[in-house]
């Protein structure tokens, strides 16, 4: 019997990207005893189960408000803070639109994109491949963070003080450049180091 893996995410709402107990209960009740569920560092669950049942199961999971995404070398759901300053002040709607624009794109290696609604950065955005940080009424974007290994590093400031309407064009342009010029299995932090942040800035200055 063939098995296949897919990703499950809780999506966004005020209070953060959190799974509800009833959502997890539904997941447990329908995937089957032979399924494997893995908690990832992307705030997603990887579900590996019988391939011929996946479509029906995914429909049921969507009905309880869960997002379904491909597993593997794709951009992941936006990893966001808990919007503790409130939905409007922390930019919940911006985060939702950004998540919809970035998720599920095939890339040379898995891409984690972080979002923080203020400078406290409780979602640790600067350890992500790309980070968006709300600074009052404008936003800063960082690139090349790396959370793993003995050479862990903070992301470098890529652009600062940009308005809300430029966030999605800039981030999606960065993803497109990685898709085009990144090497197979190359981490985004290594990609930024190889291309240099100055070159990235030149390639996206009109986005």
From TrEMBL:
Query: Can the keyword Iron-sulfur be found in this entry's annotation?
Result: yes
Q: Which domain of life is it from?
A: Bacteria
Gene3D superfamilies assigned to the protein according to its UniProt record, in alphabetical order:
Sulfite Reductase Hemoprotein, domain 1
**Keyword line:** Iron, Iron-sulfur, Metal-binding
Per UniProt, residues of the Nitrite/sulphite reductase 4Fe-4S domain are 96-203
Q: What is this protein called?
A: Nitrite reductase
Read off the InterPro entries from this record: NO2/SO3_Rdtase_4Fe4S_dom (IPR006067), NO2/SO3_Rdtase_4Fe4S_sf (IPR045854)
Organism of provenance: Paenibacillus alginolyticus
């Amino acid at each position: 019997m063939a098995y296949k893996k897919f990703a499950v995410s809780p999506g966004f709402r005020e209070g953060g990207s959190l799974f509800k107990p009833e959502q997890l209960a539904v997941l447990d009740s329908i995937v089957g005893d032979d399924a494997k569920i893995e908690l990832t560092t992307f705030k997603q669950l990887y579900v590996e189960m019988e391939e011929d049942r996946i479509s029906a199961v995914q429909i049921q999971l969507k009905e309880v408000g869960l997002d379904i995404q491909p597993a593997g070398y794709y951009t992941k759901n936006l990893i966001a803070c808990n919007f503790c300053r409130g939905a409007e002040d922390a930019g919940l709607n911006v985060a939702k639109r950004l998540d919809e624009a970035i998720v599920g794109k095939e890339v040379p290696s898995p891409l984690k994109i972080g979002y923080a609604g203020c400078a406290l950065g409780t979602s640790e955005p600067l350890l992500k491949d790309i980070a968006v940080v709300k600074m009052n009424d404008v936003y800063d974007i960082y690139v090349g963070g790396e959370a793993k290994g003995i050479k862990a590093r903070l992301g470098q400031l890529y652009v600062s003080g940009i308005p809300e309407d430029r966030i999605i064009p800039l981030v999606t342009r960065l993803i497109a450049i990685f898709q085009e010029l990144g090497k197979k299995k190359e981490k985004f932090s290594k990609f930024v180091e190889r291309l240099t942040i100055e070159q990235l800035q030149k390639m996206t200055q009109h986005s």
